[in-house]
Fold this sequence. Notes:
By secondary structure, the chain is an alpha+beta fold. It is 22% helix and 32% strand. Strand 4 (82-87) and strand 5 form a beta hairpin.
Amino acid sequence: xxxxxxxxxxxxxxxxxxxxxxxxxxxxxxxxxxxxxxxxxxxxxxxxxxxxxxxxxxxxxxxxxxxxxxxxxxxxxxxxxxxxxxxxxxxxxxxxxxxxxxxxxxxxxxxxxxxxxxxxxxxxxxxxxxxxxxxxxxxxxxxxxxxxxxxxxxxxxxxxxxxxxxxxxxxxxxxxxxxxxxxxxxxxxxxxxxxxxxxxxxxxxxxxxxxxxxxxxxxxxxxxxxxxxxxxxxxxxxxxxxxxxxxxxxxxxxxxxxxxxxxxxxxxxxxxxxxxxxxxxxxxxxxxxxxxxxxxxxxxxxxxxxxxxxxxxxxxxxxxxxxxxxxxxxxxxxxxxxxxxxxxxxxxxxxxxxxxxxxxxxxxxxxxxxxxxxxxxxxxxxxxxx
Length: 386
């Protein structure tokens, strides 16, 4: 008589935590209330950050927001007015730049024009007095990594912008630092080369496992390359998160507006249920309905954000009673893979809706001055309260 086997419990899939989600992992870089003033004018204000080993971390913000100053504080080129800076568990607040395990890749690349690619990369190692054979081996190791071995004898003026960038990166990598700082590394490249180089740089960083911190004002660049990013405004850090968190769950109107395009609606909460929050918006003739995820009471003012790709646009009137409005197409931006429609509402506000151009000839061709309806699902709305 066969015995019936007891059914085995299905194994639960292992959940892999990111370093910043794992309390057992110590951050590699810690900034505690770091500030920098120039003649009494604050450039960096009370910045607190934890950055983990192997991260590709970006400091993102408009010109003058303090991101480059923060990078220079990390490099040791500037002394903080207050606060603490730790790298690898050691207090580096007042340690000079040449004694830090840090290398910096400048926006201009700063290559020596009279030296070949090979000589440029070897320069720092020669300054340290390393043996000739070791210098040679390390130079060609990084040249292979950045795919520049066949250009080793060329001078910088015979290289393209992308090739010069690779040489500058190789020169930063060859000294095997624990941390590499990148100051607007793509600024000198054209759009197509910039897009290609973004992925190359991330792949190289993953191969070597070195922590990268990049300063940029390019939102797309930061979103494409970063494990996490910090949004800065006027010296303050406004939000820290993964690209997905920053884009889908911005914590303020500034962050929502800075990252990508956004439609903002100001209104007052008129009702709250277990599932939905109802908001009266003067710019819309219909009530906004948003999932319940706010502590703002009835009568409180809020801003609701909706991304253009979350808006539906068409000539058919929506069947549901919330989150829609009729308007006139005022402008169209054609970007090849997608089109952006600027729709003017009766209140005078203009909203943006984007559509993918999936067909060469659209079945429903939308055009200028056409009456259309824009609508969106409640879960695609974000309530901003800070």
